[in-house]
Write a structure and sequence with these properties.
Blueprint lengths: L2 H21 L13 H14 L5 H7 L10 H10 L5 H45 L2 E9 L12 E4 L7 E3 L6 E6 L3 E8 L2 E9 L6 E6 L3 H11 L5 H11 E10 L7 E5 H9 L8 E9 L2 E9 L7
Parallel strand pairs: 1-7, 8-11
Antiparallel strand pairs: 1-4, 2-3, 2-5, 5-6, 8-9, 10-11
Helix pairs in contact: 1-4, 4-5, 7-8
């Protein structure tokens, strides 16, 4: 007989014990441990239910001992009938069906678990990509008083990122800064020759991708620029105004245009004299940078430009 029949016979012995416990609840659940009175009770129950008989010797030979073959087919049929089946073949067929059902259920559960795992992994991957994807933000700079856009060539922006050195970024021609970042906050310094330096810190919100930032003007720089290009008759009044703008030990640097070598340095009064002479030696000044000490200019850098526009 194939080894599989021995496996089925082992199952049959377990089913016999469970059937006996329906009539004798206190009987030992392990059939191989039965002896004496327990075996006699089984013999009587077998006669009453299927009108079949086995000897005690047969029980010891085939139930309590290990063999490489199963009992005769007539005994197997009898025992199968005792546990509720028509025959040994019927019992084996039921066992195969049950095994197949269990295997199928296991495979279904196994595939279902894999399906859930794959879906969960996919969702996790989508979440990870979404979470780590850069978002785009736009900060547009306007004059705090006129609310007009600030010309891009008048602004310089430096990004301040934790753990990294500051790095400059370019402001677009429309006067807006475009940033792509994964961070939840951003911090940057905005400066320009005609605007007060400001450090901006923002909590980034994906529902608010565009923001307008107002910059206060550097009024002294604007006045110096205007003085150099306007026609004013009251030079003394202008000298008084310039005197109040500069610290006594102020240093003023003239940066020459491309192609010219070096720079010129003035003290406060040398600069005021050249800017307020009836015949101007300094015309159309563009301020490049101002540094303050209190409310007075401590240091100024400028260059002369063509009145037609910026270089």
């Amino acid at each position: 007989m194939p080894d599989i029949d021995l496996t089925y016979f082992q199952h049959l012995k377990g089913d016999i014990a469970r059937q006996m416990r329906l009539s004798f609840p206190k009987i030992t659940p392990d059939i191989e441990q039965w002896k004496g009175n327990e075996i006699r009770c089984f013999q009587e129950d077998l006669v009453q239910k299927v009108n079949g008989r086995i000897s005690e010797k047969w029980f010891y030979t085939h139930i309590k001992s290990e063999h490489d073959h199963v009992p005769r087919i007539d005994i197997l049929n009898l025992l199968s009938q005792y546990v509720g089946y028509k025959s040994w073949d019927h019992y084996k067929g039921s066992m195969r069906l049950e095994t197949t059902s269990v295997t199928t259920a296991y495979r279904k559960n196994h595939y279902a678990r894999w399906g859930v795992f794959v879906v969960a992994l996919g969702l996790l991957l989508v979440f990870y990509i979404s979470f780590n994807a850069s978002s785009s933000y736009q900060f547009c700079f306007v004059n705090a008083y006129s609310r007009q856009p600030v010309l891009h060539h008048m602004l310089y922006v430096t990004i301040l990122q934790e753990g990294e050195s500051p790095y400059p970024v370019v402001v677009g021609e429309e006067g807006c800064l475009h940033i792509d970042t994964q961070e939840s906050t951003i911090r940057f310094v905005v400066k320009g020759p005609y605007y007060q330096t400001d450090t901006i810190t923002r909590m980034l919100n994906k529902d608010k991708r565009i923001e307008q930032i107002a910059l206060k003007t550097n009024d002294y720089a604007w006045m110096i620029h205007i003085f150099s290009s306007s026609k004013v008759e009251d030079w003394q009044k202008r000298r008084v105004q310039l005197d109040s703008m500069f610290a006594e030990d102020a240093r003023i640097y003239q940066i020459f245009e491309q192609g010219q070598i070096g720079m010129e340095m003035y003290n406060k009064w040398e600069f005021i004299d050249k800017l307020t002479m009836p015949v101007k030696s300094l015309r159309h000044i563009e301020v490049l940078e101002t540094l303050f000490e209190g409310d007075r200019i401590k240091e100024l850098r400028f260059k002369q430009i063509n009145p037609g526009g910026h270089e």
